[in-house]
Amino acid sequence: MALKISDEARVQMPMKTVASLIALSGWSLTTTVGLKSDVAVLKEKVSGVENEIQDFKNLKGKKKRKKKNTNN
Questions:
Q1: Distance between terminal CA atoms of the chain?
Q2: What's this model's pTM, rounded to 2 decimal places?
Q3: HSE (CB half, 13 Å, CA atoms) of 15?
Q4: Per-domain residue ranges of the chain
Q5: In angstroms, rounded to a whole number, what is the distance separating the alpha carbons of residues 50 and 46?
Q6: HSE-up (13 A, CA, CB side) for residue 3
């Protein structure tokens, strides 16, 4: 039992497929760009936290050195 497709449907089906692929490509590109910007923001936040931790460690180390020097 063969499926019969009209001539009009034969022309429209590939066009609809191409249109769907173009739409999916646009959505994919938009999503990718959005994810890239989200990752950039998160990297910047992580960098800031790392700098704060390093500053805290440096400050804590300076306080310990001062205490050692005053005891001598």
A1: 100
A2: 0.56
A3: 5
A4: 33-72
A5: 6
A6: 3
